[in-house]
Amino acid sequence: DIYTNYFSAEQAGNNYLHPRKDFVGTSLFAGETQDYRFQTWWQVASGVGESGHSLIKYKGIDQPSGTKESEYFYATFMSLIRLSEAYYIAAECEPVLADRYGWLNRMRTRRGLPELAVVSEDDFMKRLRSEYLREFIGEGQIFFMYKRLYININSDENGYDTNTYGAKEERYVLPLPSGEVDNR
Question: What's the Cα-to-Cα distance from 60 to each of 13, 63, 72, 75, 116, rounded to whole Å?
Fold first, then answer.
């Protein structure tokens, strides 16, 4: 029901949550459509008047007859940490730039993507953020990456609009609940 009410282009109506029409193909995956995450978690939006892509990561998977009607893998499964996240952490913490790319490339090849050449620290961090976005879309993890790194949400990483949002404390530090502040 949650998937249908928010992510289904055909049925969500005004509640439909989706990235801007050109974000998935041109910014998020930047033409790397051989990526397994693109092929399995996204589909062309098919609702009336909709364009772009819809996230189907949480859509029920029909099972063969004789088994449960559908299985909601990502709706029922929540790991404490994924192997991909461990690789991304290792890549970010590695002191040698070539080794950082090495950790990142291990996950890219497992996602059906070619290895990246060693370019620069800035290029590496942009590529790492891109992999985080691709891997954790729709899970809430991306907010914590931006907060931890205290960086801008750039226009090419922003699925909502084409604005860049600067790193500010009021954007990344949530206010304390009034019930906790009022009763000190």
Answer: 19, 9, 5, 9, 34
User: 134 φ, ψ to 5°?
Assistant: -65, -40
Distance (Å, whole) CA 129 – CA 131: 5
Nearest-angstrom CA–CA distance, 5 and 15: 7
Identify the domain containing residue 28 by its residue range: 2-76
Q: Are 79 and 139 in contact (CB under 8 A)?
A: no
Tokens of 143: 């907010």
Q: Rounded to the nearest 10 degrees, how much is the dihedral formed by the CA atoms of 148, 116, 31, 156? A: 30
User: Of the candidates 94, 162, 148, 100, which has an alpha carbon nearest to the alpha carbon of residue 128?
Assistant: 100
Instruction: Answer yes or no: is 154 within a domain.
Output: yes
Determine how β-strand 61-62 pairs with β-strand 70-71.
antiparallel
- Looking at the fold, whether 129 and 155 belong to one and the same domain comes out as yes
pLDDT digits over 72-129, tens only?
A: 555 566 678 889 999 999 999 999 999 999 999 999 999 999 999 999 999 999 999 9
The model's pTM: 0.81
Residues 87 and 44 in one domain: no
8 and 25 within one domain: yes
From 53, 76, 99, the end of a domain falls on 76
Specify if 112 maps to a domain.
Answer: yes
Answer whether 119's CB lies under 8 Å from 134's CB: no
